[in-house]
Amino acid sequence: MTNRRNFVAAALAALGPLAATRSAWAADAFPQRPIKLLVPNPPGGPSDIVARFLAESMRAELGQPLVIDNRPGASGLIGTAVVANAPPDGYTVLVTSRSNHIVAPLVQQGAQVDPVRDLAPVGLALRAVGILATPAKSPWRTLREFTAQAKAQPGKLFYGSAGIGATNHIAIEQFKVLAGIDLVHVPYKGSGPLITGLMGGEVQLALLDFSSAQAGLNGGTLVPLAQTGSRRLSSMAEVPTLAESGFPRFDPSFWIGLAVPRATPAPVIARLNKALDMALADTQMKARAQVNGWELIGGAPSALEATIRQDMADFPPLVRRLDLKA
C-alpha cells in the first residue's frame, strides 16, 4: 500500500510541470478564433465608439478580429449578464463602464447580475473627461467662486442633469456632499435638452461630457469651471482640474474598461490586457483621445479593480440617499 501511495505521489509530482507547460501553451495559443467584444449599450454611444476603436487596434496584437456585439437594455445589465454567463475562455469580453458596472445594479430592482462579483477586470481603458460648466452670463469663472456663492445662498442655485439616476445626476449629488452645498436638481430628458437649458440660464451648473460641451464652449455660451481629468487636457490647458479646484476626492469621470467572466484563466486575462495596452499606445488612438477628450489609462487589471473598489465605497450611500429605483 505504501509503495502504491509513493507511486501515485510521484506521478502527480511529475504531472505538475506538464500541467504548467500545458497552461502556458494554452495562453500562448490564445486566441485561435474571433473574440466577441460585447457593448451593453446601443450603437453610437461613448462605449460603442470606444469599443470600435479598440477592436481595430487590438486586432494587430491578438491576430484575430474583435467582433462588436451591441446588447442594450436594462441600463446595460442585459449585455453585462450575457458576458457574466459566457464561458470563461476569453472569447467574450465586456466593454464596461461605471454606468452598467456600478450604478445600474444599485438602481435596478431585482438585478440578476452582480458585475463586481461575476466579472474579472482586464484593464481600465480610459476616462472620458467631463466639464463642469456654467452659463456664460453667470458671474462665476471658477468652481471656488460658484461654491462660495452656493454656500452663501443654500437652495437658491440650480443644477441640471440628463435625468433622474443619470451619471451626471449622481455625480453632482456627490459634489454637493463634498462641497457642503445645497443645490436644487432640475432633471432634463437627455443631454440635448440639458445643454439647451444650461445655455439659456435655466440652471447654473451641469456636468457635461467633453464632446457635448464643445459647441457651447466654442460658441461662447458656456464657461468651463473645471475639468474632471487627473491632469489638464492640452486642448483645454487653461481650465483647472477638480483637484486643482480644491476637490481631489471628486472624480465623476466616465470611465470605460474591459472585463471577462470571473473564472477566466489569469494567462488569458494577461494576454487581453497586453493587447489593450498596445492599443492605447497606438498613435491613432492617441489622436482620437485628443479629439474626444479621453484620458488614456491602461496598466494592470488592478487599476480597474481599484476604480471599482472606490466607486463601490462612494455610490451605494448616494443611491440610497437619493432613493433611486428602477
Describe this entry's structure for a reader.
The protein is an alpha/beta fold. Helix content is 48%, strand content 19%. It is built from 12 helices and 11 strands. The protein has helices spanning 2-29, 46-62, 77-84, 98-107, 115-118, 143-152, 167-179, 191-199, 210-219, 266-280, 283-292, 301-322; strands at 35-39, 66-70, 92-97, 119-128, 130-135, 158-161, 184-187, 206-209, 222-227, 254-261, 294-296. The strands form 3 sheets. The protein has a 6-stranded mixed sheet, sandwiched between helices. The protein has a 3-stranded antiparallel sheet with strand order 8-5-9. Strands 6-7 form a two-stranded parallel ribbon. Helix 2 links the parallel strand 1 and strand 2. Helix 2 crosses helix 10 (266-280) and helix 4 (98-107) runs parallel beside helix 12 (301-322). It is globular and about 65 Å long. The protein starts with a helix and ends with a helix. The model is unreliable at 7-12 and 18-25 (pLDDT under 50).
